[in-house]
Amino acid sequence: MKIPEELKKKWSELRSHGDGVKIAEQNPGVTVYDISRAINTGECSDLVFDAIAGFYKEKGEKVKEFL
Q: Is the Cβ–Cβ distance between 2 and 43 less than 8 Å?
């Protein structure tokens, strides 16, 4: 699937060092390489998309709690 540019931008704003490892650890079948490739190319499987989207949705909600 193709990741919408607006979503990639949002993820980029929330991204920090080590996120790929955390996402991979929380999602069996998803590797750090899958995540890196998805963010760099803008394309991924549904499984990888769901893993990344879920992680950054949760991270975004945590940030909002503190604002």
A: yes
> CB neighbours of 23 closer than 8 A, spacing ≥ 6?
30, 32, 35, 51, 52, 55
Q: Which domain holds residue 43?
A: 5-66
Q: What is the CA radius of gyration of the chain?
A: 11
Is pTM, for the whole model, over 0.85? yes
C-beta separation of 20 from 32 below 8 A:
yes
pLDDT tens by residue, 44-61: 999 999 999 999 999 999
Domain count, the chain: 1
Phi and psi angles of residue 13, each rounded to the nearest 5 degrees, phi first: -65, -30
